[in-house]
Amino acid sequence: MTHTQTVAPPRMVRFFSELGIDQVPLVGGKNASLGEMYRELTSRGVRVPNGFAITAPAYRYAIEAAGVTAELHELLDPLDPSDVTDLQTRAAVARDIVYRAGLPDDLEAEILAGYAALRAEYGDDVTLAVRSSATAEDLPEASFAGAHETYLNIFGDDALLDAVRRCYASLYTDRGMHYRVEHGFGQFDVAQSVGVMKMVRSDLSSSGVMFTLDTESGFRDVVYITGAYGLGENVVQGAVDPDEFYMFKPTLNAGHETVLRRKRGAKALRMVYDEGGPSPTRNVPVDETEASRYCISDDEVVTLAKAAIIIEDHYSAEAGAPRPMDLEWAKDGVDGELYIVQARPETVASQHAINELEIFHLEGAATVLATGHSVGARVASGPVRVVKTLDQLRDVEPGDIIVADTTNPDWEPVLKRSAAVVTDRGGRTCHAAIVAREIGIPAVVGTGDATSVLHSGDIVTVSCAGGDVGRVFDGEVPFSVERTDVGEIARPRTKIQINVGNPDIAFKTASLPNDGVGLARMEFIIADHIRAHPMALLHPERVDDEVERQTIAELVANHESPAAFFIQQLSEGIATIGAAFYPKQVVVRLSDFKTNEYASLLGGRWFEPIEANPMLGFRGASRYAHDAYREGFALECAAVKRVRNDMGLTNVVPMVPFCRRVEEARTVVEEMARNGLRRGENGLEIFVMCEIPNNVISLDAFAEYFDGFSIGSNDLTQLALGVDRDSEMVAFDYDESEPGVMEMFRLAIEGCRRTGRHSGFCGQAPSDKPEIARFLVEQGIDAISLNPDAVISTTLSILALEADMAG
User: pTM for this structure?
Assistant: First the structure.
């Protein structure tokens, strides 16, 4: 194309060492951020590949020199962004105009000089990543993530120049143009800078994304890392189910370099370069053995998390306010190093009003048609629209539930009209998940089979209100939404704690107004995350069922030992709850399965007696020093010890359940000490459930062995009244407000005050019966622990009670 005479801007290529975050108008958000990190943070251990930016004025110069500015205005000024077909047509023409415009000779010369400098630094065989960086991209209020193109594994002068032209043309992708309209940018307000940097050979290793907060709850004290084998596009687009890791910032900063929590993804595909193929990349299957391992080591998770914290701290200082970050990382398969290849402000979870809490509650049940990773903690109902080809997008109506294999950035205008999205593939940082969070709809991703089990026109309910597992229900299931401005709720004198069993919802639950956790049940973690009886893990040879033995073997594969599997799973579940509420007290009850419940675990029936009344049988403290379970209890103690000592979560307080006699208390405390949980060491306190009449009557004697008592109203009421609470025949006799039961409560609180021990209460009674809440407050209980759905209402009623008592 013939170029007109236009004056070139000065220095159209700037190396990262010359750039900073204040130069977004010059080089766009992505390049400005890469320059900021390269210049300011490499000395602090954050590894960023070197490169250079082709400036935004260089783009404008190329367009003006080609004489196509008027042609673009004529094409785009009449744009109707609500007409998807018209937008697609005009965008395609605009891309063709810009690509054909080419590059002026002087700009080409500067680009190739920059390339020569990178070859001198990294070697003649260095390959390049060529990345778009628009001047309204990666901003705190508008991410524009994925709106423009990136070209990888570029080698040679001609390939580089062509990739730059293609990046210029990608300023006019459908999604980029639509995004600009939605965020108030004119189509000519934005210019395209291009980043050219050393290619990190993650095709030979692994890559992923990470956030300096939890993307579901907005919880800011964790670094959330996802990764898979090969190039990162599979993670971003949701083509694979990635590995997930959490690191807890406060304890990591204090020197505790232990992964908080992890989940292994399927990672069935690896994206690699397709040398000489019809497209630049292709997906190849991952070997089953390799897929069963994590894509990075724990040490590498720690390295990434430390880098993320350094980056977040730096950007927060620059902004003068907390600035959660959205980062991309890649591991080079040649040099083995971990690199940060992109950093931008997180623009979804961090923008939510911190003081506004929204909780969705399902109020019915139905057949579950599909399950996957939940995104958004919301619920929506509507008709299914299965989308298998791009031309089917035009069939999507407002309020439809889109069901697809995966989504990509071109779908965003249509996704914004939908009520929910469900995909076959993808993890919680894939494209569908990111967009769903941004526009505030629920998404269930990585179902594996949604496009085959759901059909267009079906009415379904998509629920992400139950933790990490999202569910698609048949039909319209009723639900309600509870909205609370938690910033306006004062703290009562009586501590209001929360009962938490499921680590999956701990970060979200922690946003409720609270004073910690009064009861975290180990049983949920064992049943849901471990699934096997601890003694069956230690002695699989005693499991007389080949299928169960094989299942157990599969569970513990890729762990040093079955014991290591149990300790890791249990400790990470406990630690997630401990971290969510840190530094507030988190009371974790040691296992209190009944024998019939233990027997239902994998391999359990070979280690449990058959009892006529398990409620009063071999449960709680009686198991811990008994030969039938002592080895299993040692694993529980090892998990708690790991949480407190290795992870640094000393706010976790173990609690002994169903301790019948004072002698049993002594035996259990000694057994815990033998297993590394010695009362007083590293600030360790040990609590006990106060749920047997003898605990109340002999409280002073029990107080010699325990630092606190938690009144378990369910069992204490049952045993005080002699009522089996599981029997429908005598259920009418079960009443916590019976005067004799209330006297038990009073005596326990009085005994704790007399012995200087903590007094807590866990049970539904205070939320169901205001008179019991009043009684406990009047007696001076230290803490009441409630189920999450009762926390706000009970807090308000106790504030009123305390005001009445004071006035």
Answer: 0.86
